[in-house]
Amino acid sequence: MLHRIPAGVKLTGLAAGITVLLLLDDLRGLAAATFVVFGLYAVAGVPPRLALAQIRPLLWFCVVLLAVQLLLTGWQRAVAVVLTLVLGVALAGLVTLTTRVTAMLDVVETLLGPLRRVGVRPDRVGLVLALTIRGVPVIAGIAGTVRDAHRARGATVRPWVLLVPVLVRVLRHADALGEALTARGADDDPPGNV
Amino acid sequence: MIRVENVSHRLGERLALDGISVSLAEQRVGVIGANGSGKSTFARLLNGLIVPDDGTVTVDGLSTSREAREVRRKVGFVFTDPDAQIVMPTVGEDVAFGLRGSGLPKPEIARRVTEVLGRFGLGGFHDRPAHLLSGGEKQLLALCSVLITEPAVLVCDEPTTLLDLRNARLIGHLLGSLPQRLVLVTHDLAVLADFDRVLVFDGGRLVADDRPAGAVAYYRALMG
Ligand SMILES: Nc1ncnc2c1ncn2[C@@H]1O[C@H](COP(=O)(O)OP(=O)(O)OP(=O)(O)O)[C@@H](O)[C@H]1O
Ligand SMILES: [Mg+2]
Question: pLDDT grade, residue B7 (50/70/90)?
């Protein structure tokens, strides 16, 4: 049902939601916000596993952030900072889960439309966003393949060992993708812009 | 008509193409040769992905160096690795990508997307995340995404190399029955049997240019 709300409305809502999160700094307010976010996920009918997948990438970052904040401030502040981050990402995740990328691009391109006069190419910005979203599973897939290759050769897998081969393959992928984009005409100026 | 005249091209230290002249007007042209013989470089010339150091390439009278945009609109290109060709997160959106900014109304774009997906057996895949498709399905998607813009010529650089036998046959068969003029770089000699013409490259030179049977025989002899 969240799927049917226009992308522009959802993105505005997201911006508003994140602003509210940043303004809330007592734990009671954040607890309420947590309920709201849970509620939104439930209304959208997102399966728990998929919902968890939105914030899982943050896990280690949150652990570090929590530790640093605990040292520098108190536990309350630490929990509040981490919770704000997690909820913000969860909200953004919800919007991406329920919105077609094309619809988001249309909004971004409309918003950036006025900047055309100062030389910004809204379609380019939109394309970069789409490629970023598309890039996540690609890079995850590359990392998986490289890890498996190491395992298959009996190596103990330590994350830093994977860094270089993953990076090399990601760069090679980026190169190939760039060429494919050129072949598909993405490099060319749109007819209206020449 | 694709016209390649006196083309030489260097990649790094290497002379990847050395004095190539050839005119292609046939419906289906195959390109074969050893690894590193210059096939991919030749294919990339045909839609202006590479502009040659020396010589000229024209497609239906359009120069790939001066009229690159028009040439790319006329010549579609399918690469070996389907993952590197998919730019949008879902199947339907990726196919529609080529028509973004075409000025066509949205319902018309949607209609064309549905039509082309159906034609290539991806009818039920419209809303699937592209990264969850199998290799064969991804390559079909790449093909749909290129064909939606209705190019007059299709250049494919080993489009079936990463696929299993069944998917390779399926795509090989689909490519052979397209209305587009086709230039196919391949190591799969069997699919070339009913092609109109086959070029053999070796060390950056065009060493044979013949009907499939003759060209394949030449290539086999060359490889010892
Ligand atoms: N970026 C580059 N820099 C330097 N040399 C290159 C580069 N790309 C390709 N080459 C070299 O140019 C030559 C021709 O390459 P090309 O990719 O056209 O061969 P190919 O016939 O497609 O081979 P394959 O069957 O392996 O795909 C090869 O010797 C290759 O090593
Ligand atoms: Mg090649």
Answer: very high
Could you give the C-alpha distances from B83 to A31, A128, B86, B134, in angstroms and in order?
Answer: 42, 17, 6, 10
Task: Provide the residue range defining the domain that includes B79.
Answer: 2-223
Q: What is the pLDDT of residues A92-149, one digit of tens each?
A: 888 877 777 777 777 878 888 888 788 777 777 777 777 777 777 777 778 777 777 7
Q: Note the Cα B47 to chain centre separation in Å.
A: 9
Phi then psi dihedrals of residue A8, to 5 deg: -60, -45
- Tell me which residue range forms the domain holding A149: 119-189
Q: Are B195 and B201 in contact (CB under 8 A)?
A: no
Q: Among B79, B83, B98, whose Cβ lies nearest the Cβ of A138?
A: B83
- Quick check: B82 contacting A, CB < 8 Å? no
- Look at ligand 1, atom 10, and give the residue with the nearest C-alpha: B11
Q: Tell the burial category of A109 from Cβ atoms under 10 Å away from its Cβ (0-12, 13-18, 19+).
A: buried
Is A15 in the same domain as A57? Answer: yes
Residue A111: inside a domain, yes or no? no
Which residue's structure tokens are 């005119």?
Answer: B23
Beta bridge partners of B153: B75, B181
Residue A105 resides in a domain: no
Spell out which residues line ligand 1, taking CB within 6 angstroms.
B 11-12, 14, 16, 33, 35-41
